[in-house]
Amino acid sequence: MPEPLLEVKNLRTEFPTREGVVHAVNGISYTVMPGEAVGIVGESGCGKSISALSVLNLVPVPGRIVGGEVLFEGQDLLKYSDDEIRKVRGNDISMIFQDPMTSLNPVLSILRQMTEPLVIHKGMDMAAAERRSVEMMEMVEIPFARTRIREYPHNFSGGMRQRVMIAMMLACEPKLVICDEPTTALDVTIQAQILDLLNRLRQDLGMAVIMITHDLGIVAGLCDRINVMYAGYIVEKAGTEELFANPRHPYTLGLLRSIPRVDQSIRQKLVPIEGFPPDLTRVGDSCPFQPRCVYAVERSEEENPPLTLVGEEHWVACWVNVYEGKEQSDG
Amino acid sequence: MAETSIAELAGTLTRKEGWGEVLLDVKDLQVYFPIRRGLIFERTLGHVHAVDGISFNVKRGETLGLVGESGCGKTTTGRAVLQLQKPTGGHVFYEGKDLVTLDPNELRRYRRDLQIIFQDPFASLDPRMTVGAIIAEPLEIHHLLTPKEREEKVRELLRIVGLNPYFVNRYPHEFSGGQRQRIGVARALILDPEFIVCDEPISALDVSIQAQLINLLEELQDQLGLTYLFIAHDLAVVRHISTRVAVMYVGKIVELADRADLYDLPLHPYTKALLSAVPVPDPTVEKRRSRIIMQGDVPNPANPPSGCRFHTRCPFAKPECSEAEPPLEEVQPSHYVACFFWKEIAERVAPPLSVN
Ligand SMILES: Nc1ncnc2c1ncn2[C@@H]1O[C@H](COP(=O)(O)OP(=O)(O)OP(=O)(O)O)[C@@H](O)[C@H]1O
Ligand SMILES: Nc1ncnc2c1ncn2[C@@H]1O[C@H](COP(=O)(O)OP(=O)(O)OP(=O)(O)O)[C@@H](O)[C@H]1O
Ligand code: SF4
Ligand SMILES: [Mg+2]
Ligand SMILES: [Mg+2]
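Output (structure tokens, whole complex):
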């Protein structure tokens, strides 16, 4: 059994606000093996981004990590000093955001932004750093990379900027790339280009990927394993094929039933998840999905179900076996 | 969803008859936006060809889906149809009358019949107005009903869209995105319209609540006989809700067909590429699909490519594609395509959603 690359254990992050404490991440645990792609899915506000930022100790103020461990190659990143963690970020672990402009500096040329970390972190001289940068730009298929690398971010389209971001991150050969909705702002044909690129790079270079998205289609195509989040909890995790073939959490099931698919016969009616997304300032003892859950039992209101093993590497946090529970309540 | 059966509220909203007749006939619609530069003397440097000569019709009781990538002209088309944006050229016949030629006074009468639901439920509702005032505003603009009757009607509409009538005096910020979008639907319905442009009505909503709104729109259509122009970039949602679908690319319609034909046997290379790019939430399908990965970016509508606008990205382009523009032709019954080589491409390439 190889050692996990990343091991997140019982991670908790909160935001004290005037309206109360926002419980953004409520004790989540997962692992990422070297070269593996792990998906994190869930709707807006469920804690996907904050959980990823917590891994890199980048939680925005007033947020704070209040518990847990983040073991990267066995070392707890949460115990690192600012200097130590800065060396990890952009070196061993890189992050790609939805809006590439948040991580590109608009007043510096791409060349300058790409070579700087290579000179600083990898100790390359300028000529070598430039050669490597151009290589990376070619790898992500930026045409005329040698000349275009001297241009500024605003000269590139949204899809190209995202590819430039990927090139920058690749230059340092990270072991893990965290992608936070990298294609949400892009058109579907450009999204296909980026996902295809990420997939090839993963296979060729063996990097591990954490893919954060609300699109179940994206994780289905890219990921080996999936964590489904709801209200700051991981409510279900399983291998990709198992999760889609055998969804066990009522929320996962609800998501799959509520979205139309282009490849299936047209259904008469979609089955929506009723109710509204949860308020994270209010966490009680009950199951966080209980107010919207059609399978809820009395116990769901009294006790938050823990993640339980229900199949091979398949974990679910629910008091009900939805396949049997349904029959019971029908009778 | 709508808890009171909508039919029970027949006094408020009426059922539209004449299913299948042409309600709206758009001919050669053009919208160009000037590109201006200069501080003191503004010069027009050129034009964005946002909508560049498109024709289509919408039949009573149907949903015409309009898809295409960002900036291809979907919103501009919807706005020009409603005369919220003055077209540069072309005609919009509504029940036989050309809306483009009407003066503002005549147009007012038609405004009641033609409504719009906007994409952004956060930006489209005035934050200083109560929900009741927002929904009643169209009645006020058209000087309809007494204040008392208006209030009653607002309550009924809140019920119809699945919100508690108790909410009339609240403000938009007290509602979630999905609830705000329902408020937008209630406002669009209050004048008892025939036709609604739905401009990305679910894009800003969470996946878990998109289905609620889709079902509501479908239910309203079933019960009231409404006609929709449904604009969206989510191809699966458009397939679900539409009767027919038009695909736009850089200001042009490149394909238009019944939804089953369009999705099962798309003929235009762009439609094929678009469908093949959609991720499917099923790993077994994803593994076996072959994708057409298009290179390059969407062209700038200020400077559209010559000839077929898709030739810069089309995997099947030949030299003649950059010289002449392929017309939108009916190549099979009710199936329109604008591509010189659709036939030989169809013979060579498997449909994008088939798995091998
Ligand atoms: N600076 C902040 N102050 C207070 N609450 C915050 C702050 N940042 C995030 N939160 C809250 O933390 C929760 C988790 O946010 P997060 O950004 O991780 O969601 P997400 O799953 O990434 O959503 P999305 O899909 O919209 O990106 C949300 O409920 C959010 O309101
Ligand atoms: N008022 C305006 N002035 C100048 N250009 C405009 C104006 N409105 C739209 N455009 C341009 O016209 C083109 C079509 O825009 P439109 O908003 O119709 O696209 P869309 O298909 O709705 O895109 P999206 O999917 O992003 O909403 C774009 O290039 C846009 O920049
Ligand atoms: S006309 Fe030519 S360039 Fe245009 S879609 Fe057809 S083959 Fe491609
Ligand atoms: Mg996020
Ligand atoms: Mg638009």
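The pocket of adenosine-5'-triphosphate (ligand 1) is lined by residues A 15, 17, 22, 24, 42, 44-50, 60, 63, 214, 280 (CB under 6 Å).
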